[in-house]
Amino acid sequence: MGKSIYDKIFESHIVGMVDDETYQLYVDRHLIHEVTSPQAFQNIAASGRSVRKPESILAVADHNVPTDPNRLSSGISDPVSQRQVDALVENTRTWGIPYFPLDDPRQGIVHIVGPEQGMTHPGMLVVCGDSHTSTHGAFGALAFGIGTSEVEHVLATQTLLQKRAKNYHVSINGVLPIGVYGKDVVLSLIARIGTAGGTGHVIEYSGSAIEKMSMESRMTICNMTIEAGARAGLMQPDETTFEYLKGRPLSPGVEYWQAALEHWENFLPDSDAEYSKMADIDVNGLEPFVTWGTSPEDGISVLGKVPDPSHIEDPIRTRAIERSLEYMGLEAGQPVRGLPIDQVFVGSCTNGRIEDLRLAASVVRGRQVNSRTRAWVVPGSGLVKRQAEEEGLAKVFVDAGFEWREPGCSMCLGMNPDRLQTEERCVSTSNRNFEGRQGRGGRTHLASPATAAASAIAGYIEDPRELITGQAD
Which whole number is the average pLDDT over 366-370? Predict the structure, then answer.
């Protein structure tokens, strides 16, 4: 029986077994941030242990930090957030762990900074105390989030205890229509299989549409694979992967590059690999997607209508829809296109890369943000910010009426000052639309950078094709 990418990475990292189902795996790369690491370091020190391999770790502060342009002078107003950042600074200094402070141009969101630095390679096992570690699967690496106790375990032993997951293959084929992007693809997948569709599995993506995608788009899809309930998402490394990695600070140097390519070939899937689940997606007729409810699975075409719970046979799903409609202030059968919005957020580890900013800028160039809508662009890292400024993208946003901010997780989650007020409605390029995710009582509609940008100009949820080509009906 052939092996999947997941099978090959998992098996190559086994260093021990606890029982018939639990394996001890070696960890190649460990990313940390200020929220899930303080207690882990505290326990390390209290037990008299040490950090096993500091050079395998990279640390940034991203979740709690402010993104306003004056943050270096104004500081962090929330005392708990400040203590967490201070603890990260002290712990990384104590243990000799590489850390990018707020005044370092390399600082940013952990899952944007890691790939930027060339930290993630095909065949690696990568972990972080953050669920969207699945982002790194776009490189053909097994990457997933871990809890604080597991962060401690990896710090001390460079290993992790894991049970084996099942294989789920998703083939995505066709040519993406104008106005449709990686974010729309993954939202449509989650809407199809649900937030529990991938539970117990690692989803492995392939197909002609994936092959044509940039690394940025691939990272977007793997980033949100966790929202389908999967442990991780994986893609086969190819020339696009290798070109992205070449020359980055933590990638193999010229003298090791050919050996690295030969090693990475060991992690291609076998043609006869077996999967417990399979799905095929044809993107040729796909339309821009947007969520209407309080779960990532609540996605529909931007030209669609909010579902009617009375037409749903499953009573549990019926109640969930009714609750979502009440929270979101929507009515059954209501079109999503045309919903007035208060805020647009372009950023996050899902869509805060340079490709995302280029896409949003292409939609807003020469236009103005609607007077009733606030619009923010938060680059995913200082390097993304600098590149966007050099390319003139920042000027496009500012001229259109967007706020141009400093790197950080920002409005992806309500753990920093960038929050929605109660009942404010936001079109967001982030990854989760749970109740209160962007602030208590805030209403979140997930969408691509193009849809978010078009909505900022319109002042309501808008089909980006209307601004790109005039194709919307």
Answer: 98
Question: Tell me: the pLDDT tens digits for 154-175?
Answer: 999 999 999 999 999 999 999 9
Tens-digit pLDDT profile for residues 417-455? 999 999 999 999 999 999 999 999 999 999 999 999 999
Domain boundary among 264, 286, 308: 286
Euclidean distance between CA atoms 103 and 406, whole angstroms = 10
**pTM of the predicted model over 0.85:** yes
C-alpha of 325 from chain center: 26
Of 246, 27, 255, 44, nearest to 154 by C-alpha is: 27
For residue 372, give the amino acid letter. Answer: R
What's the Cα-to-Cα distance from 417 to each of 65, 75, 81, 115, 434, rounded to whole Å? Answer: 8, 12, 10, 26, 18
- Residue ranges at the known binding site for [4Fe-4S] cluster: 349, 409, 412
Annotated binding site: 349, 409, 412
pLDDT tier at 1, thresholds 50, 70, 90 = confident
Q: What is the mean pLDDT of residues 36-49?
A: 96
Mean pLDDT value of segment 14-39? 97
Q: What is the pLDDT of residues 316-367, one digit of tens each?
A: 999 999 999 999 999 999 999 999 999 999 999 999 999 999 999 999 999 9
Q: Which helix (H) or strand (E) holds 74?
A: helix 71-74
Residue 469 has pLDDT above 90, yes or no: no
| Contact between 425 and 447 (Cβ < 8 Å) | no
Phi, psi of 424 (to 5 degrees): -75, 140
Examine the domain organization and report whether 118 and 191 are in the same domain.
Answer: yes
Give the Cα separation of 111 and 338 in Å (integer): 33
CA 312 distance to own-chain centroid: 31
Domain boundary among 253, 269, 286: 286
- Residue 99 sits in the same domain as residue 153: yes
CA distance 55 to 161: 21
Residue 366 sits in the same domain as residue 225: no
By residue count, the chain amounts to 473
Q: Are residues 317 and 269 in the same domain?
A: no
| Percent of the chain surpassing pLDDT 90 | 98
